[in-house]
Amino acid sequence: MNQQVAITIIQRLNYVDWTPEEERKAKRKLDLIIMPILTLGFFCLQLDRGNIANAITDSFMEDVHVTQDEFNVGQQMLSLGIVLTEIPANMALYRIGPGKWLTLQLFLFGIVSTFQSYQRNYGAFLATRFILGLTESGFIPGGLWTLSTWYTRRETAKRVMFFYFGNQFGQASAKLIAYGILHMRGVGGQPGWFWLFTLMGAFTILSGFIFGFFLPDSFRNPHSTFLPKVTIFTPRELHILKNRVLLDDPMKGKKKRHINWGAFKRAFTNWRLWLHFFITLANNGPQRAFDTYSPSIITSFGFGALTSNALASVGLFLQLPVSFAFSWVSDHYDRRGETVIAGMSMHMIGYIFNRGFTEVNLRGVRYFGVVWTQTFGTFTHPLNITWMSLTCEDSEVRALAMAMVIMGANIAGIYGAQIFRQDDRPFYRRGFSINIAILAAGLSLAIIRYIADIIERRKKRNQVQLHPDSLDDNDLSFMSSLIVFR
User: Fold this and answer.
1) What is the pLDDT of residue 483?
2) Cα–Cα distance for residue pair 261/142, rounded to 1 Å
3) Of 90 and 336, which is predicted with more confidence?
4) How far apart are CA 359 and CA 54, in angstroms?
């Protein structure tokens, strides 16, 4: 892009009246407040959503009197509850504000998670999973949308990945936590999984108070829910934080408290967003299925039930540095499509390993397949979300797109819950073959999206070079993603 175009863009935007040092300090303070709180919320959500995978190694199915196929239906009910209210929940957040809405959600799904301890039959199991889905609905896209309002787009990839660190760390540490808690079987005459649900749910409720006291709502209302008169940022810090975001994306300056029908039309007629939706659908179905049954799969190798929970955490801990490495490449080199394609490829290779290793009677080799799949199975999703967010025209479309792609992740949970079935265990040859086919299809879509992105950028760059004075706000939003403002 030539200098004339860059000058035209900068002249159309607000000028910078702060020093780089002031910006670094304000951003550091923002990071220390926003990121740990949102990450904690995602950590709690993953504990409450995923602890069922650990419970089934502690005779949960036998105690609640459900078969594996009935258990899969319960997992589908969780995802269905999320899907049904994903977009309405995000609309409520957009209107009420993330501080209040996310705080409320944490209390709600913490309470539901705690009361899962008292289920003793199939009907109660289905009901609690469905209600848990309803209360969790919208939390992830709400957190992502909150990040997009406080940070520039070039800063988004690492923050999204850090937000998903809560999910990934929750997946990994939950296995180790479960290893300890499940030893409480017999305490108070209760099974170990009773204490698993009770203690993790109670932790979520306590975390809700942290949200209520410390999470600021927005630039226009920079106060927490429980302390509405306490100022978290100084006026100068707010000025810097707000205007640096507007400098990056002028479309974020629109003052709206609702999402209009025009935004729905722009979002749902954008074929690129639908590609991201189907990429999510393809990546997350196999991943969700594998995450649920990985402790049980390891148990089938001949390890003890409780030991399997600890072993199931190894690959999930390994994914943490790998995730940050991919995020750094995506952000530093602006390699959005390439990192998604590489991540999906490595994920698919994991299922190829698992399918092939079913013919090998060496549990160390088979365990390697599990570790590989866990290491590369999760982080493609947040990378895809970051890539998608750069496609959005404005904050309204971005809010809907994030709800749409997270809804895709939960629709993936609906079909993914039926991949590993009772008549296919313990080797799950059919299940692994299905996962390979699904990821191959998703990988093809990611490649198509990447090629389309190259063509679009080249076309837009040529257009603005020829007619720089014709730039509108959408062009500015697009082109500003190609410039690093210092």
Assistant:
1) 42
2) 19
3) 336
4) 26
Q: Is the pLDDT of residue 480 over 80?
A: no
Pair 42, 159: CB distance under 8 Å: no
Cα separation, 45 vs 110, in Å, equals 8
In single-letter form, the type of residue at position 406 comes to I
| Angle between helical axes of 20-55 and 98-115 (0-180°, round to 10) | 20
Instruction: Write out the two tokens for 466.
Output: 């020829």
Task: Tell me the one-letter amino acid at 310.
Answer: A
Query: By the 8 A CB rule, do 18 and 192 touch?
Result: no
Q: Give, in degrees to the nearest 5, the angle at Cα 479 between 266 and 238.
A: 85
Residues sharing a CB contact under 8 Å with residue 250, sequence separation 6 or more, in sequence order = 12, 13, 473, 476, 477
Q: Tokens 């990934």 label which residue? A: 168
| pTM for the full predicted model | 0.83
C-beta neighbour count of 321 within 10 angstroms: 10
d(CA 452, CA 279): 15
Please report, in angstroms and rounded to a whole number, the separation of the first and last CA atoms in the chain: 17
Give the C-alpha distances (Å, rounded to integers) separating 19 from 22, 25, 116, 216, 486. Answer: 5, 10, 52, 24, 10
Task: Give the pair of three-digit tokens for residue 366.
Answer: 């088979």
The CA angle 67-427-355, to the nearest 5 degrees, is 135
Q: Which helix (H) or strand (E) holds 413?
A: helix 395-416
- Sign of CA pseudo-dihedral 472, 473, 477, 478: negative
Secondary structure of 153-189 as H, E, C letters: HHHHHHHHHHHHHHHHHHHHHHHHHHHHHHHHCCHHH
Q: Which two tokens stand for residue 10?
A: 């900068």
CA separation for the pair 47, 452 (Å, rounded): 38
Q: Which residues contact 16 (CB under 8 A, 6 or more apart)?
A: 243, 244, 247, 485
CA angle 424, 168, 369 (to 5 degrees): 40
pLDDT band at 417 (very low <50, low <70, confident <90, very high): very high
The amino acid sitting at 91 is M
Cα-based angle 140, 114, 147 (whole degrees, multiple of 5): 15
Contact 249, 9 (CB under 8 A): no
**191: preceding bond cis by omega (within 30 degrees):** no
Closest CA to 145 of 45, 9, 259: 259
* CATH 1.20.1250.20 applies to domain 3-480: yes
Give yes or no for residue 27 having a pLDDT over 70. Answer: yes
Provide the 8-state DSSP code for 221: S
Provide the phi-psi class of 420: left if phi over 0, else alpha when psi is between -120 and 50, else beta. Answer: beta
**Cα separation of 119 and 70, whole Å?**
14
